[in-house]
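Dear colleagues,

As part of the handover before I leave the project, I'm documenting each prediction I ran so the next person doesn't have to rerun anything. This entry is a single chain, and its sequence is reproduced below.
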Amino acid sequence: MGDLDLEHRGHTLVATAGRDVFTSAMIHELTAAVAGAATTPALRFVRIRARGDVFCVGRERGGRTPQDLRRKARDIVCLNETLRTSPLTIVCEVNGDAAGFGAGIVAASDVAIASRAARLWFPEILAGLAPTVVISWLAAAVPYKAAFDLVATGDAITAEEAARLGLFTRAVPADALERTVDEHIERLAGADPIALRDIKEFFVGTRTMGPVAAAAASVDALT
C-alpha cells in the first residue's frame, strides 16, 4: 500500500490515500489520474477515500521562494479544477476529518458522503494566513457570513452542519459509510451515462453565468 493507491473497479476509479496529509507527489498523481480517467470510456466515476480514521487534514508545507509558493498554490488550484471540470462524477467517501486542502477536495467533488464522526475546518488563520484559495471557491459554495466565520475562526464544524451548508451531500453513521457510498454510486450508474455527463458539463459551463445567461444557454444545450 502506497501513499496513493489507484484501482479500477468496473466503472469507477478508486483513489485511496494512505496519508492524512497530501504530499506534492500525491497531488500531482491524483490530478493526472482524474484527467486520465476522463479519457477512459469504461470509467464513469472517481471515488476518493482514505485509509484509517482521517480523510485529509491538509498538505505538506514547503517552498522558500515566491516561485515555489506560487507553483504549489497552482498545483492545488489545478487539482480542484480538474475535479470540478471532469466529465466524470467525483465522489468523496469522507471517513473522518477534512481540513484545509482536504476540505477543498470535498468541496470540488460532485457527491460527498461523510461519517457523522467527521469534522470539517479551515485552519490557515491559526498560522496567520488568509486562505485565499479556499475563499475563491467557498464564497460561491455557502452563504457569505458562514464562509467568513469558517475562515476567520478556523473552528471545526460537525458533519451534520457541513451537510446543512451543502459542503457534504449527507452524513451517515460510520458503520454505514462504505455501503452508503456503494449504493449511491450504483444508483447514479443506473442513469443514462450521456445525460449524467451532460448534467456535469452544464453545471461547469454555467457556474460563472447569471440566471438569465444560464437560461439562454439551457435552450441551446437542450436543443
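The chain has nine helices and ten strands. The chain has a mean pLDDT of 93.

All the best with the project,
I.
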